[in-house]
Design a protein that fits this description.
alpha+beta, five-stranded mixed beta sheet, 5 strands, about 30% strand
């Protein structure tokens, strides 16, 4: 009982396999996605971007990728850059959004963040890692913004 139950439910809810489509095309075209959770995740990321923009943040990037890993949102407010992981949670039954980001996921997010910093960072920028948990993909439900959710080793 607990987290493993959540994973089992997620596995059972997966859609049947479709004919193989090149993965790069699939990532770019949400209409090809068969798993509704992926579409809901995209909607939640877009809603989180609007939520941040409404609070004075400028969205620098959405789904910045490095290899197979990505950063959901990169937001800027003056010299502060937030690398934001967005988690959609319909309830806390499977834990809070930040609990779903383990050591490996944090390390992957940090690597992707470095790629953005090397390409777009400015002298004097400050960086942090945030988590936004939403209970509805459209952003109309509860939104929790955990600022500075973790500190990377390279800070």
């Amino acid at each position: 009982h607990g987290r493993s139950d959540c994973r089992a439910v997620a596995a059972r809810g997966a859609a049947p396999a479709r004919p193989r489509t090149p993965s790069s095309a699939m990532r770019r075209d949400p209409s090809l996605w068969t798993d509704r959770r992926h579409r809901q995740g995209l909607e939640a990321e877009e809603a989180a971007g609007r939520w941040l923009a409404g609070r004075g943040w400028r969205i620098e990037a959405h789904r910045w990728t490095l290899g197979r890993n990505d950063l959901d949102l990169i937001a800027r407010k003056a010299d502060l850059v937030a690398f934001v992981e967005v988690k959609l949670r319909h309830s806390d039954r499977c834990g809070a959004g930040v609990e779903a980001i383990g050591r490996r996921k944090r390390a992957a997010i940090e690597r992707v963040a470095w790629s953005w910093i090397l390409r777009h960072g400015r002298g004097g920028d400050r960086y942090r890692f945030d988590v936004i948990s939403m209970e509805r993909a459209d952003g109309l439900g509860r939104v929790e913004h955990l600022e500075d959710a973790w500190r990377p080793g390279w800070r």
